[in-house]
Design a protein that fits this description.
Blueprint: E1 3-13, E2 26-35, H1 39-44, H2 53-65, H3 72-86, E3 91-102, E4 105-114, H4 115-119
Antiparallel strand pairs: 1-2, 2-3, 3-4
Helix pairs in contact: 2-3
């Protein structure tokens, strides 16, 4: 299956379990691998036949900016559902990095889901 890849997308989200994390939005960095059949676009050279990665990035940024999750895991679950509802992708691999979570390291989670698993 073909893939559309968005790496190091910087978004802002109110995220965290500690009081200091709830005071203001924090930066997060996302890598998305979106499994999508690119064959129609390969033949037509038309954006309407592809997955518009700018539209995906905008949707991810807007979702995160309006979210209020405590944990990255919950943000990931909500975001995966949102992408599946909004875009016709079949499978997603998502990595979310939270650079301010630890003083000397970057914390991250990575998950992978199919449309069938998330939408049933």
């Amino acid at each position: 299956m073909d893939k559309v890849i968005i790496e190091q997308l910087k978004v802002s989200a109110l995220i965290g379990v500690y009081d200091w994390e709830r005071e203001q939005p924090q930066p997060l960095f996302m890598d998305l691998v979106l499994y999508y059949d690119l064959s129609p676009a390969m033949g037509s050279d038309n954006l309407e036949d592809s997955l518009d990665y700018a539209a995906v990035a905008d949707a991810v940024s807007a979702f995160c900016a309006s979210s209020n999750y405590l944990m990255l895991e919950a943000l990931a679950g909500g975001l995966l559902k949102h992408i599946f509802v909004t875009f016709p992708v079949e499978h997603i691999r998502l990595k979310i990095r939270k650079p301010e979570a630890l003083p000397d390291a970057v914390a991250a989670i990575e998950c992978e889901r199919s449309r069938a698993a998330m939408m049933s």
